[in-house]
From TrEMBL:
This is Secreted protein. The keyword Signal applies. Residues 1-18 form the signal peptide. Keywords: Signal. It comes from Haloferula chungangensis. The keyword Signal applies.
Length: 317
């Protein structure tokens, strides 16, 4: 270590360093410095992850615990770090009606849950598929408690990427990026498409894949029914224009995509029969013609026709 420090100092202070070739000891010192910087960066990230994970676990215990953590983070980021007085913070709390909303506190709890999963995905990016069952449970939990998060402030918070939250600011995680992982649990379609369904697209798991799709469609249906209106409670108008359009156009399209996905994963016989039934029941859908074309390409692909039209010697008949 002493040799490393001496060489590094010599390199930084030497005018010859910028003009001549590197000696072997100098190369080794630079490589050692690079390794030390990388190790320090990894250690710093691990420290942040550990502190955040512990705090988030405490916050997920109850609605009140989630709100307490939220307030501590607000005070730290917006007041302590900006040298603003505790009196200013108390005044902010007094004026902020959002923190009195039980739905907002429940949304914070769900947000912390998703942030915790996101940290695990970031720590082990090669094993994101292993988080699929927990992601599915989290979405189901969110929608089971949909009535408890049925306010605009709650929904807005849940739609916010976790890296844009006050929790991320307080724990230095605003720059966190995880390829292939949604940074918010809403919309649920992205969670299913990126996390839950991909591991199920195998010939041995076509039943589980279809079950996953059915859950996805139920979740999207419930989300649209409860949260698609302009007011705080779309549930009061279950056939809002947005929800009516979802039922008439989007839901049949999702069902079709489900069967195509299952067909490609391996259950060709069962999926083909269900696709025909779906076409029969939705023949007036604006995408029915497109569905028919897709069905023909799946059941009787062009390359199969070319092979059938060729002679045994490979020459066209």
């Amino acid at each position: 270590m002493k040799r490393f420090l001496v060489l590094t100092c010599a390199l930084l202070s030497s005018s010859a360093f910028a003009q001549g070739p590197l000696s072997e000891p100098e190369r080794e010192a630079l490589i050692d410095k690079l390794k030390a910087l990388r190790e320090a960066a990894v250690s710093n990230v691990n420290t942040k992850f550990s502190a955040a994970t512990a705090a988030f676990k405490t916050g997920m215990a109850s609605n009140s615990a989630a709100l307490d953590l939220y307030l501590k983070c607000v005070e730290k980021v917006n007041y302590e770090e900006k040298n603003r007085s505790s009196q200013d913070f108390r005044e902010w709390k007094r004026r902020n009606r959002q923190i009195e909303d039980p739905a907002f506190a429940m949304a914070l709890r769900h947000q912390l849950n998703w942030f915790s999963l996101t940290l695990r995905a970031a720590a082990h990016p090669g094993d994101i598929d292993k988080l699929a069952p927990e992601a599915s449970k989290m979405i189901e939990s969110l929608l089971i408690t949909a009535e408890e998060v049925d306010s605009k402030s709650a929904r807005d918070e849940l739609r916010k990427p976790v890296t844009n939250t006050i929790f991320a600011q307080a724990y230095g995680l605003g720059g966190l990026k995880v390829e292939g992982w949604p940074m918010t649990p809403l919309p649920v379609s992205e969670v299913y498409e990126k996390v839950i369904l991909p591991p199920l697209r195998t010939p041995k798991t076509t039943e589980a894949l279809r079950a996953g799709w059915i859950n996805r469609i139920k979740c999207e249906d419930l989300t649209m029914m409860r949260w698609s209106g302009d007011g705080d409670r779309a549930q009061n108008d279950p056939l809002s224009p947005q929800y009516a359009k979802f039922l008439a156009e989007t839901k049949p399209q999702l069902i079709w995509e489900m069967e195509v996905d299952v067909f490609k994963a391996g259950d060709q016989r069962g999926a083909a029969l269900r696709m025909l039934e779906h076409l029969e029941n939705n023949i007036t859908h604006h995408k029915a013609t497109e569905w028919e074309r897709t069905f023909r390409e799946l059941v009787d692909p062009p390359e199969k026709k070319v092979a059938a039209d060729a002679t045994p010697n490979g020459e066209p008949s």
